[in-house]
Design brief:
The complex is a heterodimer of chains A (346) and B (342).
Chain A (H helix, E strand, L loop, with lengths): L5 E12 L2 E13 L4 E5 L6 H9 L6 E9 L2 E2 L5 H7 L4 E4 L13 H12 L5 H15 L15 H13 L5 E5 L7 H12 L1 H5 L2 E5 L3 H7 L2 E6 L2 E7 H6 L4 H8 L47 E2 L11 E2 L11 H4 L5 H8 L1
Chain B lengths: L5 H29 L4 H6 L5 H11 L5 H13 L13 H36 L4 H15 L2 H16 L9 H9 L6 H7 L3 H38 L2 H8 L4 H38 L5 H10 L3 H29 L7
Helix pairs in contact in B: 1-14, 5-6, 5-10, 5-12, 5-14, 6-10, 7-10, 7-12, 9-10, 10-12, 11-12, 12-13, 12-14, 13-14
Classes of the chains: A alpha/beta (346), B mainly alpha (342).
């Protein structure tokens, strides 16, 4: 297999707060192949967006990143700010959640594109800027007649198309799309998803699609990574994971999805853990229906389904429940939850 | 004209000026009548026989019903006829012409100082939030805004004038005043001196401008510093600024074209609103520095309760404020395309 566009190993992002460090991303490893779409799902506050921002070096002041994050073999974590900046836009791009506020209201569409292209190609002629921009806009479905328009003259869906076009006009190898359709209505959502899905055909771009919408993942992604409390708990081929989820959290997440066939609402009891002081062992054990005695004692590693080490393209899971054969009978006994009951009453 | 076009917006805005001026004129007229004191007794003294006072009132038309006087006043304003002062029989337009120039150069100088100093300082403070420089600039901004103009003016006269060799009173030395105003061209002393090619006089007039402009400018400066700083802090957090960074646009350019430029939009609006404040500040500054401007004249006329003169000058100032707010709206519409669509 060719060299991955993004190869992350044990990436950690911690935010300093008065209460202590928030371990927003806590030892995450994954790889994205050229032209591949990797979906990243999880509840709000599980570290998805932080991971996306970390890839572009857009973390706020007070955030610390560690581990190794290779972009085509170069480590983005070890790089100086200046070197990392050089990758922004041309190699790594980002599409944000709220298209309505992401364009400068005082600048015309043409000015946005001119500024973006000229920042990276200072000598590009005005005619070439326009030709390149209009080409991308056409593919995205915005007519050339809107070239001189202002952002407020577009609807939300159109503005998200503009944001996508602005990211793609530089032909980046890797795009992070952070919940790109959350603020849009369903029909527009479908259009945007189709555009993102067609990206690799038109631009040969890899995509990290961050969302909490499992339907979008199933529709769009080649592979999916499920994140819980700053860690990836399951990753693999999107179809395989959806058809046969191994991790109890993935299962619960899938059961919570609302479809026409839904005849009752399912939710996962409890709330995502405090990332300053996460529970010991497997972070999910306080909410896990299948928790065993070992779960709060030792953290399960992310291993291939068959129990072997994780390989490129393998389907991995981090759960003791898939490795019961290796456990002692004592470790296998269901977890007795006294503390939880006490906490509930309090 | 299509909706949202600039000419259409301007026309709408111009039409709105008419009711605005009407309200202003009504307020000016009735507030003055409600205020205690009487122009005839104030000018002629109250020892005159009642018949003489009544005769003077009748002569001025003050004995007629208020509503009649009001509509007559409106008619006069519509034809730009502000009448003559009761106390010294000067035509009001002449007073405005002869004294307006001094106020104009004073306020423009103050604005210039405030813009050139306040906006860069505000930008610096916003850019380096919570640094030592930011703290110093913030304190300077609060103090210069809170200190009364006449107090700052007095301190300057006491501490700055002598070591710097700056004059503390008037717009020019008496000699210069005499020669330059002998042949008025625009009735703006500074401009006339330049047009006459009298460079010595020009220098003298400019030197006289320094302290009054500084005193009035400091007040505005404080406002601009705080305004630019707060707005810049806000736009630096804006989503479109982060998006611009994500596209790899250099930080300098992000600050300049996305954060700072957008932060200036509300500043322009406030500059327009400050015109009124500056004019009232100018009254105090003129009094402190014996500045022969409109405010100085206005105070003189108020002392003798000269209805006609006060009414005329206040109306003129009100018209000026209205015109300035119109100008600001137009500038705003030119900068911010969203304004045209309201």
């Amino acid at each position: 297999m060719s060299q991955p566009v993004i190869d992350a190993t044990d990436v950690r992002v911690w935010y300093g707060t008065p209460r202590g460090s928030v371990k927003a991303v806590d030892g995450v490893s994954f790889a994205v192949q050229p032209g591949e779409i990797l979906g990243l799902v999880g509840e709000s506050g599980c570290g998805k967006s932080t991971l996306g921002r970390a890839l572009l070096g857009l973390l706020p002041a007070g955030a610390k990143m560690d581990g190794s994050l290779l972009f085509k073999g170069e480590d983005l974590v070890a790089m100086s700010d200046k070197e990392r900046f050089a990758h922004r836009g041309t190699d790594l791009a980002m599409i944000f959640q709220e298209p309505l506020t992401r364009l400068n209201p005082l600048m015309r569409v043409s000015e946005h594109f001119t500024e973006t292209l000229r920042s990276h190609h200072p000598k590009m002629r005005a005619s070439e800027v326009e030709a390149r921009s209009l080409e991308v806009l056409r593919l995205i479905g915005i007519p050339p007649s809107r070239w001189k328009a202002y952002p407020h003259e577009f609807s939300g869906g159109m503005r998200q198309r503009l944001m996508i076009a602005l990211a793609l006009v530089l032909r980046p190898a890797f795009v992070v799309a952070d919940e790109p359709t959350t603020a849009l209505d369903v029909l527009v959502e479908a259009q945007i998803i189709k555009i993102l899905h067609d990206l690799r055909r038109n631009f040969d771009t890899s995509l990290l699609l961050i969302t909490h919408n499992l339907g979008i993942i199933a529709e769009t992604c080649d592979r999916v990574a499920v994140m819980y409390a700053g860690k990836i708990v399951e990753v693999g081929d999107a179809r395989t994971v959806f058809r046969d989820p191994q991790h109890p959290y993935t299962r619960e997440l899938l059961r919570s999805t609302i479809t026409l066939a839904t005849d009752g609402l399912n939710s996962i009891p409890g709330a995502p853990p405090d990332l300053v002081d996460p529970p010991p062992g497997c972070h999910f054990h306080p909410r896990c229906p299948d928790a065993m005695t070992i779960c709060p004692q030792f953290e399960p590693l992310l291993l291939a389904r068959d129990g072997g080490p994780s390989r490129v393209g393998s389907d991995d899971v981090a759960c003791w429940g898939t490795r019961t054969a290796a456990l002692t009978p004592q470790q296998r006994t269901p977890l007795v939850r006294e503390e939880l009951a006490v906490a509930d009453e309090a | 004209m299509r909706a949202g076009s600039l000419p259409r917006y301007l026309l709408q805005r111009l039409l709105l000026v008419i009711p605005m001026i009407l309200v202003l004129l009504t307020l000016v007229f009735f507030l003055l009548r409600v205020a205690p004191g009487d122009p005839v007794t104030a000018t002629l003294g109250d020892r005159l026989p009642q018949e003489a006072i009544d005769a003077r009132r009748a002569q001025l038309g003050l004995d007629r019903p208020l509503i009649v006087q009001f509509f007559e006043y409106l008619g006069q304003v519509a034809t730009l006829n502000f009448g003559e002062a009761i106390s010294d029989n000067q035509p009001i337009l002449g007073v405005v012409r002869d004294n307006g120039g001094a106020t104009l150069t004073l306020t423009l100088g103050a604005f210039l100082f405030a813009l050139l100093v306040g906006i860069p300082l505000g930008r610096l403070a916003g850019r380096r939030r919570d640094s030592a420089g930011d703290v110093v600039i913030r304190i300077f901004g609060v103090v210069s805004y809170a200190a009364p103009v006449f107090f700052v003016g007095l301190l300057m006269q006491m501490w700055l004038a002598r070591p710097l060799g700056l004059p503390t009173s008037g717009i020019a030395s008496p000699r210069v005043m005499f020669t330059v105003s002998a042949e008025p061209i625009t009735h703006i002393l500074l401009v006339d001196a330049i047009l006459q090619g009298n460079w010595a006089a020009t220098g003298d007039i400019l030197v006289h401008h320094v302290l009054p402009c500084l005193a009035l400018g400091l007040l505005l400066c404080g406002i601009f510093i705080r305004l630019v700083r707060v707005n810049l802090l806000q736009t630096l957090q804006a989503d479109y600024v982060e998006a611009a960074r994500a596209r790899g646009i250099p930080e300098k350019q992000v600050v300049k074209k996305h954060a700072f430029r957008n932060a200036l939009v509300p500043v322009v609006t406030v500059i327009g609103l400050q015109v009124a404040l500056t004019l009232s500040g100018a009254v105090l500054t003129e009094k402190t520095f014996n500045w022969p401007g409109l405010g100085f004249k206005l105070l003189q006329y108020i002392e003798v309760r000269d209805y006609i003169a006060v009414q005329g000058i206040v109306t003129f100032i009100a018209l000026l404020v209205v015109v300035m707010s119109l100008v600001v709206d137009v500038v705003n519409a030119l900068i911010d395309p969203r304004v045209r669509y309201q």
